[in-house]
Amino acid sequence: MTGVRYRSAAGRWLLFATVLGSSLAYIDSTVVTIALPMIGRDLGAGSNGLEWTINGYALSLAALILLGGSLGDRFGRKRIYLVGTAWFAVASLLCGLAPNVEFLVGARVLEGIGGALLTPGALAILEASFTLEDRSRAIGAWSGLGGIGGALGPFLGGWIVETASWRYIFLLNVPLAAAVLWVTARHVPESRNPQAARHIDAMGVVTGAIGLAGLTYGFTAWTASGPGDPLVVAALAVGVLGMAAFLVNERRSAHPMLPLGLFRIRAFTGANLVTFLVYAANGGVFFLVVLNLQVVAGFSPLTAGLALLPVTIIMLALSARSGAIGRRIGPRIPATAGPLICAVALVMMARIGPDAHYATTILPAVTIFGLGLAVLVAPLTAISLSSLPDAYAGIASGVNNAVARAASLLAVAVLPLAAGLGAGNLTDAAQLHPVYRDAMLLCAALMVGGGILAAIFLPNRSSSPSPVTSFSDPAAPPVQTTSSPH
């Protein structure tokens, strides 16, 4: 079997297209967090409005990302990637023109739909296109190079918020998306799974979206209205029933969006359980740390954005090597050690308060956190994909991304509540400080739980995925055929 080699010109173009495209979604979430205080002042948004600026995007992304992976497997991963990128650009333009917070939240929901179409495509394209021996290195490089977007995002976001307007953080997505469209159209091979279902699991899409929406809205409204509010109770009930209906539908459907039989594969299930806990912690960290630095520690938006720069630099430098090491020694050790290292860093981050000094309090914590993520992310992502045959690259990537996004979504909604915010205000220093401290300790506990699950469920050796089963255009590498997973 042949395929794209990591060090070839074709491999470089593949990495560029997938890194830049997936970075759009990542940069957008990190930059918006930096801009939240300014958005709140400019649009007169309260705590709930600010949370929904984050959650509106994350909700549609998490609810539809499985569909995005399935559509890529069926209609072509390159094609859906292009559609998602174009959709994302249009929605970003609407965000930049938002006259009020309600319009902004609606545009963010549309933006999340675009993200759901493009995000699983990036990893699925890498998994289906690179040679077997180069995939872990390519995924590691994708994780690390994505750190460039993570590094530029907070810097550009903080600079834009300080010198111009928060609106430009959305408008900047438009030319970036145009570059992604051009490179992808010219240099990315098409691939799909000829065994993919020919019917869209509409009931699965609807019930999954209702379930996530109900839970997210219920937990978000809880902080303002209390647990006894009828709307909160009704929303949580709808969320639970929606998720139950989703699972029942996926079990009975002839063409499920999420084939539940895949979870009989131990490594796949274990990787996604670890992903859920780790990315729930990450969602809380990246939402609250930058906010705390501005509101409590008094950092400017630019300085707060730059504070996390060591995380992305470390991931850029080490992720490709971590992916290669994970392939040699297996995913269990790095996926166990990484979350534990992150937990230590989060305990240190809990100390960031009004008198925090960057060199002595913040820099050591974010450096250790970056090391933990660099050890963890590439091997965990690789095993979540390689545990299934290559024909299921889209669904494997979709599931892993959906789990990560849903975890982050629920973390943003639940963590302030679990940490005792009540009816408080995230932009008030006196109220945010204790909530932030307790939330970081909760995130540390989630990381420890992720490390324990990795030690229990993940294999000592990397699995050897089956050969690629996909349709390819003439520019794509030759492929072989394999059977479905059991």
Please describe the structure with a list of short key phrases separated by commas or semicolons.
486 residues; mainly alpha; Growth Hormone, Chain: A; two-stranded antiparallel sheet; 16 helices; 2 strands; 1% strand; disordered C terminus
Q: What does this entry look like structurally?
A:
With 486 residues, the protein is mostly helical. The chain folds into two domains: 9-186 and 257-465, MFS general substrate transporter like domains (Growth Hormone, Chain: A, Up-down Bundle), CATH 1.20.1250.20; 206-256, no CATH class. 76% of the residues lie in helices and 1% in strands. Strands 1-2 form a two-stranded antiparallel sheet. α4 packs antiparallel against α15 (393-418).
Oligomer: single chain
**Radius of gyration computed on alpha carbons:** 21 Å
* C-alpha termini separation: 23 Å
Number of helices: 16
Give the strand line-up of the largest sheet.
1-2
**Beta-strand content:** under 5%
Shape label: globular
The number of distinct structural domains comes to 2
What share of the residues lie within helices?
Answer: over 70%
Task: Write the H/E string, N to C.
Answer: HHHHHHHEHHHHHHHHHE
Spans with pLDDT under 50 lasting ≥5 residues? 464-486
